[in-house]
Fold this protein.
Amino acid sequence: MKYVFLLILFGGLLTTPAFAEDVKNPSVIIETIEIPAEKFNLVSRDAPVIKLDNIHAISWQVTIDNNLDYANPNGNAILKIYDQESHDEFIEIGMGSHPENKFWVAVLTPKEGYVVVHRDLDRGWYPEAKSIISFTDRAGLTVNNGSRIVVTNLDIGEFIIDSYSVYGMDSYDDPPAVNSGSMIVEFLSGDPSKNIFAFFPFYVAAGVGVIVGILFLTKKRS
């Protein structure tokens, strides 16, 4: 039986992350945009919807690095990401000014309408950390505010990102929301099934099973 343990150990070594780094997923798309401060000094109805260079589907992650300097204590920086099928369906991330750093997550879907799924009016996001919005077809929507997960596995149906918009003012009479800095947003997506390494442990397990069977039969005959 010592040969069996050696085979299992060998299979485990093959499935370590160091080995996995050499196997790339051809479906992975990474797109990074930097949004300057002045783009947030608009009301929602005037914010242009900007098409991304790529669509992000199946499994995606949006990372927000907020380096904006807010112009007033009531200023906000709001990012909306839109579904490809209908721009009446979106995910909204709101980040308020210092020192409260309010943070909210809302979704608009044809079935439920506009729903705020998380709101934190004090220390809701952290300037030294990045906020992460992730989604998979199976697990739904999850949001991390840079310190903890605030939305977990929310079912919003299929959601394919193809565009975004930003704004920060509630009305034309408001003072500017932001006066300098920028927000860096990274879109990362891919199809996990296109990573051949994802199935490698199953091949190893099957191979080990066959070899164990052969060794067992050989030992039994001897």
Observations:
- Residues 2-23, 197-210 have pLDDT under 50 and may be disordered.
- The longest strand covers residues 178-190.
- The radius of gyration is 23 Å.
